[in-house]
């Protein structure tokens, strides 16, 4: 962080009135450098209904920014539905039907505010017959770009 502040100083960042609080700029850059972007990823060999991944938000405010899925084998009947939950309530879902191609990848953009202590879970709420190789991930970002 000292090197970052030194380089910002050399570059003249924050020396004019364009930022009301240079410490806020440092805090944002520090969060980026420290990788404070909570995320969860999960894999299921045989797709079944279950909570398959989760994380608890740390003390930084952040946002859920996306849900992504990849279904290796879409199955012979039914669909795969993956939801992202915040404190037990669904915030969005992706569904892949068994009639879709094996290897189907999907994504859903989200803009859900999070606070310290929130529980974020990846939940398989519907599973197909003979579905396999599910990968699901939730993206979150602790930094708001304006």
The CATH topology of the largest domain comes to Jelly Rolls
Low-confidence stretches: none
Taken together, the total number of domains comes to 2
Q: What does the overall shape look like?
A: elongated
How many strand elements? 8
CATH architecture of the largest domain: Sandwich
**Euclidean distance between termini CA atoms:** 22 Å
Structural category is alpha+beta
Q: What would the average pLDDT be, to the nearest integer? A: 83
Helix percent reads 10-25%
What do these coordinates show?
- This protein is α+β, with helices and mostly antiparallel strands and 146 residues long.
- The protein contains two helices and eight strands.
- The chain has helices at 2-11, 22-33, and strands at 40-46, 50-56, 62-73, 79-86, 89-97, 104-114, 119-126, 132-141.
- It has a four-stranded antiparallel beta sheet with strand order 1-8-3-6, with no helix packed on it. Strands 2-7-4-5 form a four-stranded antiparallel beta sheet, with no helix packed on it.
Secondary-structure topology with pairs:
Layout: H1 2-11, H2 22-33, E1 40-46, E2 50-56, E3 62-73, E4 79-86, E5 89-97, E6 104-114, E7 119-126, E8 132-141
Summed up, what is this model?
This protein is α+β, with helices and mostly antiparallel strands and 146 residues long. The chain is 15% helix and 49% strand.
Offer a few descriptive terms:
single chain, 146 residues, alpha+beta, Jelly Rolls, 4-stranded antiparallel beta sheet
């Amino acid at each position: 962080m000292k090197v970052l502040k030194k380089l910002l100083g050399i570059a003249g960042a924050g020396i004019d009135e364009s930022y009301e609080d240079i410490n806020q700029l440092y805090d944002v850059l520090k969060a980026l450098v420290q990788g404070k972007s909570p995320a969860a990823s999960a894999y299921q060999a045989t797709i079944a209904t279950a909570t398959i991944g989760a994380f608890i938000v740390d003390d930084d405010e952040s946002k859920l920014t996306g849900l992504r899925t990849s279904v290796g084998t879409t199955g012979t009947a039914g669909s795969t539905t993956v939801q992202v939950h915040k404190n037990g309530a669904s915030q969005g879902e992706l569904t892949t039907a068994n009639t879709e191609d094996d290897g189907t990848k999907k994504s859903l953009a989200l803009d859900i505010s999070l606070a310290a202590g929130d529980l974020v879970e990846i939940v398989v709420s519907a599973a197909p017959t003979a579905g396999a190789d599910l990968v699901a991930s939730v993206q979150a970002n602790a930094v708001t770009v304006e």
